[in-house]
Give the backbone structure.
Amino acid sequence: MKKILITGGAGYIGSHTAVELWNAGMEPIILDDFSNSQVEVLDRLEEITGKRFVFYRGDCSDKTLLHEIANAHQIQGVIHFAAFKAVGESTQSPLIYYKNNVGSLVILLEFMQEKGIKDLVFSSSCTVYGQPDVLPVTEATPRKEAESPYGNTKKIGEDILVDFVKSKAGVRVVALRYFNPVGAHPSAKIGELPIGTPQNLVPFITQTAAGIREKLTVFGNDYDTPDGSCIRDYIHVVDLADAHVKALHFLTDQPLNFYDVFNVGTGRGNTVLEVIHAFEAVNNLTLPYEIGPRRAGDVVKTWADTKKINQVLGWFPAYDLDACMRDSWRWQQFLMKG
Ligand SMILES: NC(=O)c1ccc[n+]([C@@H]2O[C@H](COP(=O)([O-])OP(=O)(O)OC[C@H]3O[C@@H](n4cnc5c(N)ncnc54)[C@H](O)[C@@H]3O)[C@@H](O)[C@H]2O)c1
């Protein structure tokens, strides 16, 4: 069975990817320092898959630990999720972000070269496009100056990968630019951990529905969109996880010194108000919300052109917005029980 090292494998997207890798006949080897996740995730993964995954607690910038893992397991590919992701915090503490997000990538690449591990899938983000001039956004759309140190770590990460591949380092790399991951595993055993006040719409919706937040604020309803609220491309986390499986399959057929980038989205944009109404309808709930002023720095509208990932990786999303809203709410209910 092919063994894949997943840095940040206990996190939101990493844990779902561990399940999909297993379902596809690959064995995830999880490395996580639990800086933004909980060790209980491993129990939940076992409940879902029936398998206790091998896991290492530690920092993925720890080269000694990486070698220890590779000496114990024949690692054939790496998915690098581990990173800090709070945009606001990154503006307060940029060095922590550069050190963790950029520093860990450099060390991981050195390690891969030392061990002759060829395949890497890297977590990038649609944040590299900023507010695109033309929609939908294709992979050829020029990247814009990053709006935050976090966003910049993703741009720099991509640049490092391009340079590394150009140097004939003997690796094959795919960077996936995620649009807006939402939802949770349909079992409701894993999902996104709520830490602090959510900055993203869907956790805010579910926490409001749960009574943790009094009401939801829609930041602006006078933008140039059908109902005036901002538009995003919401992608179910299980579909996103599956994109990593497809990317790994694809990489094994590529020549060495290969790099490519793919958007991962549904190809459809939904407004904030559409998302709220979908959540209400599918879960038979009413959400208290108000219209507030625009929020500084918000991208007004973005959604992916997904032709490339559809055609080249043969990846298509299976879950729609209603499923995203149903699974997000189930996960919130699970958290409340716990
Ligand atoms: N969730 C999103 O909206 C989104 C969008 C675009 C890109 N991404 C990227 O996807 C990746 C995964 O995001 P997520 O939402 O699953 O985040 P997450 O915080 O849930 O998962 C990241 C995991 O990495 C771990 N981690 C962080 N630094 C580490 C280190 N140095 N060593 C070992 N473990 C470490 C954390 O404990 C956590 O379990 C990140 O690179 C993120 O930037 C996320």
About this structure: The CA atoms of residues 90 and 150 lie 5 Å apart. DSSP finds eleven helices and 13 strands in the chain.
